[in-house]
Amino acid sequence: MRRLHQTRRGAAPGALRHWDMQLPDPLRLFQEWFAEARDREKSDATAMAVATADAAGRPAVRMVLLKQADARGFVFYTNLDSPKADNLRANPRAELCFHWPVLERQVRVSGQVDAVSDAEADAYFATRPRLSQLGAWASHQSKPMNGRYELEQAVARETVRHGVGPVPRPPFWSGFRVVPAQIEFWQQKPFRHHDRQRFTRIGGVWHHEWLFP
Ligand SMILES: Cc1cc2nc3c(=O)[nH]c(=O)nc-3n(C[C@H](O)[C@H](O)[C@H](O)COP(=O)(O)O)c2cc1C
Asked: Where on the phi/psi map is residue 163: left (φ > 0), alpha (ψ -120 to 50), or beta?
């Protein structure tokens, strides 16, 4: 695991010596852990739980797949008529949680949620397999259906409707970006003496704390 480097500074004669931490950028640290997870985990390292709450504060959590992670935030795609999208419109905050069991690591990311731009969603949708694109058109995500047959019928209808041309992104399908205000890295250690490091962004600057496990 990447460690904070501690360096002595300001050691003018007679001055108080102090420890100054040179902090790693938490987004870079995330990228390092994520790259290791992609190499070493047996399951999909992009799978993450996303917790939302409705306007009354009722929580809901479900798995989604991370499609982009950079300085702007963490992006996933979904149906805009789904309960999670309703929650995010009512209360545009979320927490993500990755668990990488082979590496014995957990990462939590929380913050404000923005809609991704239409251009960005179009570009990502165009990369999806055709059957996934048709599935996005066919699925009224989280609405009741009369068994699998209704889904298969809807996929068949969409297949005929789109013919052989490109399948455009449905207007009811797009992405959300969680803009990180806090990122916590948890690394399992023997006897539950785990490492926890929390980074909080205040006024555009990341602040670091160690937490008791
Ligand atoms: C590993 C995994 C990955 C998933 N990825 C997505 C995803 O990227 N987008 C999505 O809308 N649903 C995804 N799902 C399904 C969601 O967990 C959920 O069932 C669905 O989005 C409906 O959620 P909602 O009713 O809370 O809106 C995934 C499920 C699993 C188990």
From this structure: left
Q: What is the pLDDT of residues 48-59, one digit of tens each?
A: 999 999 999 999
Nearest CA to ligand 1 atom 3: 64
Q: Are strands 47-53 and 73-79 parallel, antiparallel or unpaired?
A: unpaired
* pLDDT (mean) for 189-196: 95
62 annotated as belonging to a binding site for a ligand: yes
CATH of the domain at 137: 2.30.110.10
Computed over every residue of the chain, the mean pLDDT equals 91
Pocket test for ligand 1, best of 46, 61, 62, 141 (most atoms within 8 A of CB): 62
Q: Cβ < 6 Å from ligand 1: which residues?
A: 47, 60, 62-65, 76-79, 82-84, 141-142
Domain of residue 182: give its range: 5-210
Q: Give the pLDDT score at 157.
A: 98
This model of the complex carries an ipTM of 0.99
**Catalytically annotated residues:** 192
Instruction: Please give the DSSP secondary-structure letter assigned to residue 85.
Output: H
For the chain, give the number of residues: 213
Number of domains the chain contains? 1
